[in-house]
Amino acid sequence: MEQRDSNFDLDNYNEKQMEEGESSNSFVNLEVDLSQRYVETIPLTPFVGDCAPYKEYDRIISLNLSTNRFIHFPLLVCQFKNLRRLDISNNQLASLPKDFSSLKCLTQLSLRNNLLECLPFEFQQLKLLEELNISGNLLEQFPFELLQLKQLRILYMGGNLIEYIPAAIAKLKKLDLKILYVGGNRLIAVPDSIGALSELTSLGLADNRLESIPSSIANLHKLTTLSLHNNKIKVLPPGIARLKNLEQLSLRNNPLVTDFVNEILLEPPTLKELAARIVKIQLVNYLNTANQCVNPKCKGVYFESCSELVKFVDFCGKYRVPLLHYLCSSKCSTIEPAYAYTSSSSAESDDDQRPMSSTYAKEKMKKVLLG
Length: 371
Known about the structure:
Leucine-rich repeat, LRR (right-handed beta-alpha superhelix), elongated, Leucine-rich repeat-containing protein 58, LRR_R13L4/SHOC2-like, Leu-rich_rpt, repeat
């Protein structure tokens, strides 16, 4: 028999509708909206009693309890075993009961704007959850329970008190996470493992305390939106220019550098560093870990001893954005490279050796917000 959806409006509910309503044997998916009632407990009339239209809890697939005054999670909801969508945002919940894990059919859950400080351990049993919004709570740590949600695709965690993202976030790579928003927290750094989330299309890191962005962000090749505004970022990793699908980059209210010192005092390079610049790279396995100087006219390499260079890159022919590059030596320049090409080492083309530029970004970048 064909299933249908039915919306329940509490304001129009009365005994006549209850008597003339759908037969309890009909296969109807029920969507119940009890939002904006400003109640402290869930009304029982529609759910309890022989004549109650929703006494068959298994038919309820959607429930909206947003914008009420719930202090405790209504345990009655834990009996709705086939519930797929639950919105209990804009309440005053300080915790979730262990029985919350009985809602194993949930695919969409909004807990936005409550008083939650953590998620229960049993939360990881919601294996079908695809979209989760826990923004606007009091979370101080990234909930590790989320790393076990195999179907999670969209995660909003903005407006909390989170100070760091664990390196274990790389586990979300297996989940094909597409949207991650952690703006409005207290982040001071982002782990390199963020680059493992290869399916991300949108990453929100705005309104934090970030001073830098890991170079691994260049591995997020499917990224279309990157929000970095309202941080303390001075320079960006040059790999951002290689994100061909990036359409929107928000950088406003960051102390992006306008003046910088060209001369940087460096410690003398070690003998191993010097040897790496003489011995052919294919002869020693250790040399495979070397980094190439970004100067297109230089063949120098380095391991740790390098010179930082801030290069302003033109995005979309309109904005100049500072990107951080590394040279093998503070004396290296296009006029006098520290280690020039030789006839035996010039097989590689200039295109392969050129420094990161805005060429990649110009094709698709649509918005760069600096002010």
